[in-house]
Amino acid sequence: MNWRRLGVSVGFLVLTNAVVLAGVAYNRSGEPDVEITLTEREVPVSLGTGGPNDEDTGLALHLRWQSPNMRWHSFQHESGPAWFDQAKLEAVGYDCSLPLSDLDAALYYNRQLPREVYVVLEYEGQAWADWLKAWGEDLLSASAKVAAGQLSQQNVDKHREGYERVSITAARLVAIDVGKDAVQLRQQYPEPHRFIITRAQVRLAFKEGKTESGEDYPPHLRGSVTHVLTEEIHVPYEWHSVLTRFTEGRSSYKNFQNSFAWQGDPKEPRYEITLRYGKRHEPWITAVRLLPAAS
Questions:
Q1: CB neighbours (10 Å) of residue 248?
Q2: Can you tell me whether residue 45 is helix, strand or coil?
Q3: 277 to each of 37, 78, 99, 193, how far by Cα in Å?
Q4: Nearest CA to 40 among 197, 228, 177, 173?
């Protein structure tokens, strides 16, 4: 046995764990930046973190959120949230100086790399109300297309089912802003029980094409939040017995999202979770409470 190599490996493992624990301690020190109570809609339980053959049986919650322009089964084809325009892209560090009329503009802009920023997620606010209202407007638009012979009634029925389902099960966290400075964003959105500020990745896209009526729309730039960097939230052992009942046969991260939001009859949330976000804008669980729907 190579004792020296073993000693180096053990030492590296100890050092890695020490760094991780120090980071956790630093994140949780002082006053939290956020203390918010979410439901199963926003933080469903997921078992494991990998694929079908994943051997990780740890329990975690997965943070679910909405982008304002993304609606499943939507009949509208939007290019991105209106607030994430060229000015906002420049504010988070993208160079947008090449004229959009340039022949190389599409290639230049679509090759831009993702950037890490801070995202603001609003809980059960105006953004959520607008998101759900847009679903209803999509449904009205689809119904009108049936009358005009442009769409089948079957498609409309599926859309109506989706609308009724999301009003009950969809996450009510919506991305409403991004920025490079978390302190500045907190000044703009000072309510820690309503706004989460955390790290996320964004992308830039060059958009051009036609509207649904066939009219050309001019080239423009839009940004999108591709994902929040800390979406998996570890469940401490003390709450495993409360939450494992909601895994419902799930075996991996990949299929957790279908069990609550899209499988079977729509369910009211069965639990709520209190989260805190600390100095590193990373979450941890401080309380778990069952709701009447759990009985």
A1: 15
A2: strand
A3: 12, 32, 40, 11
A4: 173
- Residue 226 corresponds to which tokens in the numbers above? 């591709």
**d(C-alpha 53, C-alpha 76), whole Å:** 37
- Residue 216 CA: distances (Å) to CA of 100, 212, 219, 220, 257: 15, 10, 9, 12, 37
Structure tokens at 45: 């339980």
Per residue in 25-39, pLDDT tens? 777 777 889 999 999
* Nearest one of 192, 38, 239, 199 to 118, comparing CA atoms: 199
Q: Are 191 and 183 a contacting pair, CB within 8 Å?
A: no
DSSP letter at 44? -
CA 206/CA 221 separation, integer angstroms: 5
Contact 198, 283 (CB under 8 A): yes
Backbone angles phi, psi at 71, to 5 degrees: -135, 120
CB 120 within 8 A of CB 177: yes
DSSP helix/strand/coil, 256: helix
Tokens at 162, concatenated:
């989706």
d(CA 38, CA 178): 21
Model pLDDT for residues 90-120, shown as the tens digit of each residue: 999 999 999 999 999 999 999 999 999 999 9
Nearest to 119 by CA among 202, 178, 183, 181: 178
| Long-range contact pairs involving 182-189 (C-beta distance under 8 Å, separation at least 24) | 182/33, 182/118, 182/281, 185/118, 185/120, 186/33, 188/120, 189/120, 189/122
